[in-house]
Design a protein that fits this description.
Blueprint (H helix, E strand, L loop, with lengths): L2 H6 L10 E3 L2 E4 L4 E6 L2 E2 L7 E2 L5
Antiparallel strand pairs: 1-2, 2-3, 3-4, 3-5
Length: 55
């Protein structure tokens, strides 16, 4: 993912900044992780998992 795209992305639930974790973009405010597959983030709230559920 290009840096400018990554910098523009925000959590769809709270509009907070997202951090990186292998295979996911993480919102610390909501405690949710959004999956990234083949460099494409899935920013749908229904596909997010709670941070505690990540390996």
């Amino acid at each position: 993912m290009e840096d400018w795209v990554r910098a523009a992305l925000r959590c769809p639930r709270c509009r907070g900044e997202l951090g990186d974790r292998p295979g996911h973009l993480v919102c610390r405010a909501c405690q949710l992780a959004y999956p990234v597959r083949d460099g494409i983030p899935s920013m749908l709230a229904g596909r997010a998992v709670e941070l505690g559920e990540l390996p």
